[in-house]
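Sequence only, no structure available. Ideas?
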Amino acid sequence: MLIASTLQTALISRRSGETRSADCSADARATETTRAVQRALDFIDACFAEPISLTELADVAGLSVSRFAARFSGEMGVSPQQYVRIVRVRHAQRLLRRGVSPSLVAAEVGFFDQSHLCRHFKRVLGRTPMEWLNAGAPFSPNA
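Reply:
I predicted one. Tokens follow.
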């Protein structure tokens, strides 16, 4: 739950256009960083069901692996790996709500198997998929 709320806060901050510095050159660097991270976010959204390495994301962003990991975490509030897991869980929620079985959902969104899905689902939302569904699968506009 904490990971999801941290990510939500980071996304709201990015959408509102908050900047970290009043210095023009720092603003230029922040804008470029945002573009780099945005390229990675677009890649994750398009390929979340496939294995995604940190190296691939850094290449897409046009940054070194270490710089990308630091910048991504700084802008998004979570590591790139955590973000990929959150995106996968959000897509899993959507499919589970439609009645797709957890084993099929796991394969569809990029988890190795149902237990892998359950472990990460619980890590992100604090409940297993079945607990979440039995609680009424609350609607989330981001899911």
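The longest helix spans residues 24-47.
Hope that gets you unstuck.
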